[in-house]
Amino acid sequence: MSEYLPIVVLLILSAFVAGAAIALGHLFGPHHPTERKSLPYESGMTPFGPGARRMPVRFYLIAVLFILFDIETVFFLPWAVVFRKLGLFGLIEMLIFVMVLVVGFLYAWEKGALEWE
Amino acid sequence: MSIDIILFLGLAVVAILSAAGMLFSRNAIYSALFLIINFSAIAVYYLILGAPFIALTQITVYAGAIMVLFIFVIMLLGAEQTGRTPASWWMRPLGMGLGALLILESLYLIFTHLHSFPQPIEIIDGFGNPGQVGEILFDKYVLPFEIISLLLLVAMIGAIVLTKKKMKR
Amino acid sequence: MKWDDLFAILPLVVISTWAVVLVLVDIVIPRDRKGITAALAALGLIFALYFTLPQYNRHLVAFNGMVIVDGFSAFLNTLFLASGLLAIALAYGFLKRNNIDRSEYYTLMLFSISGMMLMGIAADLIIIFLALELLSIPLYVLAGFARPRLDSEEAALKYFILGAFSGGFVVYGVALVYGATGSTAIVEIIQAVVAGKAAMVLLTIGAALIMVGFGFKVAAVPFHMWTPDVYQGSPSPVTSFMAVGAKAAGFAALLRIFVSAFPYLSVSLVPILWLISALTMILGNIVAIAQNNIKRMLAYSSIAHAGYILMAVVTFGKGSAAIDAVSAALFYLLAYALTNFGAWSVVIALEKSEGRGLLLQDYAGLGKKYPAWAAAMTVFMLSFTGVPPTLGFLGKFYLFRSVLEGGFIGLAIIAVLTSLVSAYYYLRVVVIMYMQDGEPVVEGDIWLKVAAGATAVLVVVLSLFATPLLQWAAQATLQSGL
Q1: Is the CB of A90 inside 8 Å of chain C's CB atoms?
Q2: For C27, which of A89, A100, A110 is closest by C-beta distance?
Q3: Is C107 within 8 Å of B157 when comparing Cβ atoms?
Q4: Higher local confidence (pLDDT), B123 or A45
Q5: Least CB-packed of B21, B71, B123, C59 within 10 Å?
Q6: Which ipTM did the prediction report?
Q7: Would you state the pLDDT for residue C481?
Q8: pLDDT band with cut points at 50, 70 and 90 for residue C401
């Protein structure tokens, strides 16, 4: 457990620094909100309309594809650590895994899922 | 010995409070952020239990990718703007009553049968690190590993079929 | 990995590789020629069937105890592959007609079939969970295939949410069973229980959670709420495939786990299973009476049939009666599969766009205008009820007999009474077809007609050869050592 001590120290320090930045800014900075200052910024024009447009479904698709390839990457990690010991057989097993996902990637590419339009 | 208990209890407080925060906050985005805190606490639990690889996967996949998806979906559905949906008057009491019954039953069973629960085993040094996981993943569990690739492919095809309006081909 | 391992999973490898290749094929063929995928998918299924045949007389455990090949799994694999062929026949014309002719339908169906086959050969709880997810996820997508239509999207959403939830129950149950016995392999679980080293409380809770999860899958009461809406909203060919395949796979897992791994829990779990089985039969049959839409009626009827098959799971602790019950359940699954595809083929023939043509009234006058279709539907309704000389009658007969052998007289009585009740709503369709006047319009392509005709003929003809079929199912069970 002691090998994780540096990470804990890092977390505490970064929380401290971030918290200090916000707290100091809040304490010592000027705080005079007016009506116009708290409107959303629209490059100088006055904002009108509901201001919240429906999010395109593209974002969802990108997030789903990210998850799937992220899980594939996570599976690479244990293989990468022991792949010498596993030899040719391990390589073939990993290749099958990757090939199936490459087919998925080609499918996503051809169907236009990767285009931002 | 005592540092472990303090760590466990501290984490327990964080995990339970963040779970409660997730359930009771009005804004769905706040709930998602509380869930991220909860997942991080669980990841530290995995570290304590001696499964560093699973802890790493928890942070990378769960708190990373899946929560991103959650937040996108919440914004897609506009759920952060909706309040609580009206429910029939008997739903909450029924749910709380059944939940309390379940907890009481479980506590009773656990405490009366504590002696018959399996004992925790000693974990060897280096247990649960990616090397060990890799050795067993490609030896004993190779079939589940390949099946997972099929599952990921199916998920990909499914997501694209359901979201693409005009198919290029 | 030895050659044994490869032989054990050969049909599975054939189907999944074929499906992956079919995804690539889909990328290269142009928009209007997607029918090729259907033909290729059917070819792949036939190919896999060829590889399933040598598995019948073997008994081996492969992949470090993850999969088991025996008569039970070979029987179920054949059933899944044949269901796939029938499902393609039903879907081909329907997809073209309704403009949702996308080849992902066939690739997703092949993936689902490979998940079902994996369930049939599973010998380890981890494989069972993976198989459950692999067969369910394509079905969630397929349920929403008729996408702009609201009820199809609603069906997909409901099925997905409840299915994912039930998968969670199964995983938690598997985790508790692992904690109780120290292994997820079914053989080692049995060894731990026999040696007295298992924590029985945890094991019982784990088994109960697994039962709940699979209860959702096979639509047992009180986990059946999703069935009518999902079956009605999904495109009809998808429903027919779901009703047979997902149920059979769920029962494969229940029979495999409960009959082989949990017989020592029979004292605690049998009363609950008894209650679930009885409630399922009663509720499925009674609510079906009130249905006017044929898809909903068939949905409740499939709930009722799940109740009958659950009777076989109830006998799981009783030694030799359990073996008879398992072979009767396999036989019943076969009879149910043929009858179900047949009935749904008639539904598809009469269905119009936008979900019209699905009320019982729309079947009026079918006897006069399309006597062949009406005759086929009559055969299927009779088989569902359990009237001789159909396969359904024999299925029920064997099932009831094995339940009586197991000593569950009350359950058998409930089954007989509810079957009598079911006669009302099944024969009501026959009456409407022949005794009422109307102007039905039937649209069926050649494959639909072939499927309807073939299943109608098989349902009657096979019932004459029932004894060898039952012996085939019994042999399959005995060899598996269940």
Answers
A1: no
A2: A110
A3: yes
A4: B123
A5: B123
A6: 0.90
A7: 55
A8: confident
**Burial class of residue C58, CB neighbours in 10 A (0-12, 13-18, 19+):** middle
Contacts of B57 (CB under 8 A, 6+ apart): A74
Neighbours of chain C (3+ CB pairs under 8 A): A, B
The torsion region of residue A115 among left (phi > 0), alpha (psi -120 to 50) and beta comes to beta
| Residue B109 forms contact with A (CB below 8 Å) | no
User: Is the minimum CB–CB distance between C175 and chain B shorter than 8 Å?
Assistant: no
| CA–CA min distance A20, chain B (Å) | 20
What value does the CA radius of gyration of chain C take, rounded to a whole number of Å? 21
Shortest distance, CA A36 to any CA of chain B (angstroms): 23
Instruction: Note whether A100 contacts C1, CB cutoff 8 Å.
Output: no
CA distance B168 to C347: 33
CB neighbour list of residue C428: distance below 8 Å, 6 or more residues apart: C360
Count of beta carbons in the 10 Å neighbourhood of residue B24: 10
Amino acid, res. B153 = L
Structure tokens at C174: 């598997």
The SS3 assignment for C254 reads helix
pLDDT digits (tens, 9 = 90+) for A13-62: 999 999 999 999 888 888 777 776 776 666 766 666 666 666 777 888 88
Domain range annotation of chain A: 2-110
C23 lies within 8 A of chain A by CB: yes
| Domain A2-110, CATH among 3.40.50.1820, 3.40.1010.10, 3.10.520.10, 1.20.58.1610 | 1.20.58.1610
Which residue of chain C has the CA closest to A112? C27
Going from the C-alpha of B86 to that of each of A70, B82, B107, C161, C368, the distances in angstroms are: 38, 11, 32, 21, 52
- Residue ranges of B 40-59 with Cβ closer than 8 A to chain A: 47-48, 53, 56-57
Number of structural domains found in chain C: 1
B156/A97 touch (CB, cutoff 8 Å), yes or no: no
Q: Which residues of C touch B142 (CB under 8 A)?
A: 1, 63
Pick the residue from chain C with its C-alpha nearest to B136. Answer: C64
Answer whether C150's CB lies under 8 Å from C354's CB.
Answer: no
- Its pTM stands at 0.91
Whether omega before C222 lies within 30 degrees of 0, making that bond cis, reads yes
Tokens found for residue C179? 């904690």
Q: What is the DSSP letter of B86?
A: P
Residue A42 CA from chain centroid, whole number: 27
Of the candidates C139, C91, C89, C92, the one whose C-alpha atom is nearest the C-alpha of residue C113 is: C139
Give residue-wise pLDDT tens across range A60-107: 888 999 999 999 999 999 999 998 888 888 899 999 999 999 999 999
Cα B141 to Cα B58, B135, B137, C119, C122, distances in angstroms: 20, 9, 5, 16, 13
Q: Do A107 and C27 touch (CB under 8 A)?
A: yes
C-beta atoms of A77 and B53 within 8 A: yes
Question: Whole-angstrom Cα distance, residue C143 to residue C299?
Answer: 14
* Greater model confidence, B31 or A36: B31
Determine the residue of chain B that is closest to A79 in CA distance.
Answer: B134
Strand partners, C69: C60
Helices (H), C182-265: 186-194, 200-218, 226-233, 236-241, 247-254
CA dihedral C29, C30, C32, C37 (to 10 degrees): 10
Q: Cβ-count burial of C195 within 10 angstroms (0-12 exposed, 13-18 middle, 19+ buried)?
A: exposed
C329: nearest Cα among C240, C410, C251: C251
Asked whether C425 and C291 are in contact (CB, 8 A), the reply is yes
Give bridge partners of residue C185 from the DSSP assignment.
C124
Spatial distance between the Cα atoms of C72 and C256, rounded to a whole number of angstroms: 9
Extended beta strands in C24-115, E state: 60-62, 67-69
Q: Which domain holds residue C353?
A: 3-479
